[in-house]
Amino acid sequence: MRAIVGWVVSRLRRYRPDRNPLRRRSDRIEAALAAAALAAVLFAVWPAVLAARAVYDDGIAAERAGSGTRQLVEVTLVETASIEATSIGAASIEAAPAVQANGRGLPAVSPARWTLPSGEVREGVVPAALLLRDGPANARLWVDAAGRPVAPPPQRAETMTRAGLAAAGAVASVAVLAWACFALARGWLDRRRYREWEAAWAAADQRWRRHHI
């Protein structure tokens, strides 16, 4: 912690505005660029908050369940190996690959029948990952307003995590861009300072040579 505080203090002393006669014009330009980079990062906080709020609101909307959004319905798993998939367009369970789960080969999709809240019965081949199994032949399934299988709604923790990542990503992007611009400008200033130092040493060498002669 002390090392971090010491680094921050040294940078503040290096870039603080003062009337030090040893400061060159390039030093003041570098200090101004450092202040501009810091200001850009600070100004990025508000857009980051707005982005996080938008992601959070979208997540809250996706969490909603009920009539007109997504609903949880009971599913009966059909034992037949082939069923017309009216919901997702798959035609045969035999064509589905098998995945390893708990050491057993399980089908990636399952033929199922579910009843919508309106009373309409749907049949189709449903991805096994979308089924919340309650037993060998029974499960639950999230469906959208049209009765099609959909992924479960996100949890509140997932929504908050996505919002936090959106805010952090926005600030980090601006910080990386500001640092890159500052580093490029500082490199250019360093090369200019090195040329000035070489010119000053060459002029001093000429004066010393004339003095000794």
Keywords:
7 strands, alpha+beta, rod-shaped, 5-stranded antiparallel sheet, 213 residues
Secondary structure blueprint with pairings:
Elements: H1 2-15, H2 25-43, H3 45-63, E1 71-77, E2 98-101, E3 104-107, E4 109-115, E5 121-127, E6 131-133, E7 138-143, H4 156-212
Antiparallel strand pairs: 1-4, 1-7, 2-3, 4-5, 6-7
Notes on the structure:
The chain has 213 residues and is of the alpha+beta class. It is built from four helices and seven strands; from the N terminus they run αααβββββββα. It has a five-stranded antiparallel β-sheet with strand order 5-4-1-7-6, with no helix packed on it. Strands 2-3 form a two-stranded antiparallel ribbon. A hairpin with a 5-residue loop joins strand 4 and strand 5. Helix 3 (45-63) packs antiparallel against helix 4 (156-212). The longest helix has 57 residues, at 156-212. The radius of gyration is 33 Å and the shape is rod-shaped. It starts with a helix and ends with a helix. 12% of the residues are buried. Mean pLDDT is 76; it is low at 80-106.
| Tally of separate helices | 4
Low-confidence stretches: 80-106
For the report, how would you describe the main beta sheet? 5 strands, antiparallel
Structural class: alpha+beta
Q: Could you tell me the mean pLDDT? A: 76
Shape: rod-shaped
Query: What order do the strands of the largest sheet run in, or round the barrel if closed?
Result: 5-4-1-7-6
The amount of helix comes to 40-55%
Distance between the termini: 56 Å
Radius of gyration: 33 Å
Oligomer: single chain
Beta-strand content estimate: 15-25%
Order of helices and strands: HHHEEEEEEEH
Structure summary, number of beta strands: 7
